[in-house]
Please model this.
Amino acid sequence: MSFLISNDDGVNAEGIRVLADVLSAAFVVQVVAPDRDHSGASGSLTLGRPLQVTKLDNGYYCVDGTPTDSVHLGLSSLFEAAPQDQERMSFSRVISGINSHENLGDDVLYSGTVAAAIEGRFLTEPAIAVSLVNRGQFNYGTAAKVVLDLLMRHDAPSLPSKTILNINVPDVPYEQLKGVKVTRLGHRAKGQPPEQVLDPRGRKRYWISLAGDGDDAGPGTDFHAVANNYVSVTPMQVDMTRHKELSTIKSWLEE
Model:
């Protein structure tokens, strides 16, 4: 199988290098990632200008755009077949990460890491977003080994199309992991208000502050799993329809 790897921390981030190195020992991988940190970019596309792509000395492709731009180009344009080949290179799945910090609960709404995985939802295998719940130890190797373990399993169930697996890995040595928990997304409390700062010319600016702590973070959630040294795996889908309320809204607006 061949995988397209991307991230939102930038093409030179340690997490993507460790992930690509570990997976390339067993699979064919190509790396296409932004030229700089795009944390919080969500699923934004660059529409107002053309994108520049540079192939680096290590074989990675660097895009002066967002994580979604990078995956979009990687799946559609960058690996077109040479004239003598039968067909262009095809990928089995997109793997995004290893993100430098967690993507738990509401984080997935803003995460460029998750958005890069979502852009790969049309491939045959579920896309994967993997994040390190960073506590200053930077155990990227642990997270990479978790992904490799998952990919090497031959008993994977057949999941519905357009499924995304959001994986969060505690920042501990691999041997200290207690196992894997399949979880739902929890929720954070309201974040802290932006910090008011002054630029060098005395003008007021606002700096987005920290996200809130886990609010809905009990057993069964991604928050609870990683807090107890378990890997959290949350199956996700793009459909954001609140299906339970369809009949209520119909009664209000249609009848």
